[in-house]
Amino acid sequence: MELSKLYADSDRPQRKKPAAPRSADGASSRRPRSKSIYAAATEVRSTPASPAPSPRDGQERSEERPARERKRRRRRERRKAGAAERAKNASQRREAARDAVLPADGVFGGAFRAFPLSAQVLKAVDDMGWEAPSEIQERMIPRVLAGRDVVGQARTGTGKTGAFAIPLVERLKDRAAEGAKGRAPSALVLSPTRELALQIHRQMIELAAYTKLRCVAVYGGAPMEPQLRALRAGCDVVVGTPGRVMDHMRRGTLRTDAISCFVLDEADRMFDLGFRDDIYWVSRRLPDEGRQTLLLSATMPKEVLRLSKEVTSDPEEIYTATGTLTVQTVEQFYISVDSPRKLGLLVHLVGEERPEKGIVFTRTKRAADRIAESLRKRGIDAGEIHGDLRQRRREQILERFREGNLAVMVATDVAARGLDIQGVTHVINFDIPEDPEDYVHRVGRTARMGRTGRAFTFVTPEEGRWLDEIEKLINKQVPRFEVEGYRCKATDEELARSPAARRGRPQRDAGEHPMARKLSPALLSLLNNRRGGGRRGPPPKSGGGRKKGRGRR
């Protein structure tokens, strides 16, 4: 209501209210007005108090309270006893597996029997379903067993973790058999992300199932106290992220005097995340004499090569990623699409492809949340994972995805490096990565260990140059994939004229400024005026220039 009307109504003379009609006996027939809140409160205060409980009522309540407490105590004791029984059974199973006498000439191990590995390690490899070593494993395992420093480069999904974990368990199992309580670790493994640290920790435990080797994972985003207890109890291998490892070293809870093997996994990613100084800090505080250093990476930029020369001693260099950096069993495509239609294209593509396990990569955390929510609204089981989520929530989503309870996982690059999730059939780059090496790691989540997979990359007209850089890095032409109804309008007429247009990028006009597609209109106008020798600054106002003799105000 407008203020003028409100105030106009308040100035009008008030009409007298009509008298209430009365009944034959003279009583008013109007409904009595409700009492005000204050009158009701007064009546409540004036009402007599309820009679005090009798001593018998208090006695009954006092008798019920201990009964409830006894029931709660019995439930807690039953839960505690059940947990202790389950832990005891699990411990007995582990001890039985470790103490089991395995025949040295057993039929397990497959092609891994060609290596000088014990029956315990071969049986664990067989339990994990590994039948034959990959190229990086075949070349690296003998050298690590011989105690040599190794610098290894291999494509993602080729088993780099197993290449150092298998010989590491073999070398440390005899020391672990002594079972000294509170023993200092003999191996330290650094990884760039918490997820990769947990994955390495899981594989180490599986490979050490028939030994007494103990492995502890330390990483940020998790409580410190459980990690402290595990380190005090003694272990043989510590797997962690650089920041949390440094915290424990400063506290003195992580002893490094017995470290004989230092592993840097995904070294290029650690440089990308800014861990360069942390790596050097940790390396300088490890024993130099008799230390073996293993450095592994999917790509080998100059920074990683420089690091390898500083932290290793006469290393064996193993390069298996010759030719293309992506595995041959993954089908790679790009789809040219306008940016506003990317979400609709994603929903259409997921509906057509129906991935058993698909990962959608985005650049931002907000986009990951938005895309996952949109997929869920359309009936697609999807979850998101990024750096803002709590560690417990991230682990829950990863576990659901591993078990097949999620069809699609939307992720930022936090999940692109090193994660070994079996059975990923599709990778969709909703946002094309600006760094070509990130493309290699994203696509490497599918077609792992000889399996097949498909990878799709959405390319808007402004992003064609990034696709060119990706093709140069992987030394392979990425074919275009046509989706009916989602053809990029900006490139339809230019596909036959320009290589840039074939990449989904419209050509720049001959007279257009090179930065025309990146600058605001005002700044672009200023640059064009400079190029044409025109007047600098905004155009003069109408009505002539400044009058002669007028000073600056």
User: What is the radius of gyration computed over CA atoms, rounded to a whole number of angstroms?
Assistant: 35 Å
Instruction: Name the overall outline.
Output: globular
Distance between the termini: 47 Å
Total beta strands: 13
Percentage beta strand: 5-15%
Give the name of the CATH architecture of the domain at 110-319. 3-Layer(aba) Sandwich
Describe the largest sheet.
Answer: 7 strands, parallel
Q: Let me know the CATH homologous superfamily of the domain at 110-319.
A: P-loop containing nucleotide triphosphate hydrolases
Overall description:
The protein is of the alpha/beta class and 553 residues long. Among the domains are: 110-319, P-loop containing nucleotide triphosphate hydrolases (Rossmann fold), CATH 3.40.50.300; 330-487, P-loop containing nucleotide triphosphate hydrolases (Rossmann fold). It is 42% helix and 11% strand. It contains 19 helices and 13 strands. It has helices at 3-11, 37-46, 55-99, 119-127, 135-145, 160-177, 194-207, 224-233, 242-251, 267-272, 276-284, 302-311, 342-353, 365-377, 391-402, 436-443, 464-474, 499-502, 521-531, and strands at residues 150-153, 187-190, 215-218, 237-240, 261-264, 292-297, 316-319, 330-336, 358-361, 382-385, 408-411, 426-429, 453-459. It has a seven-stranded parallel beta sheet with strand order 3-4-2-5-6-1-7, sandwiched between helices. Helix 5 (135-145) runs parallel beside helix 6 (160-177), helix 6 (160-177) packs across helix 7 (194-207) and helix 16 crosses helix 17 (464-474). The longest helix has 45 residues, at 55-99. The two termini are 47 Å apart. Mean pLDDT is 78; it is low at 1-14, 34-47, 491-514 and 531-553.
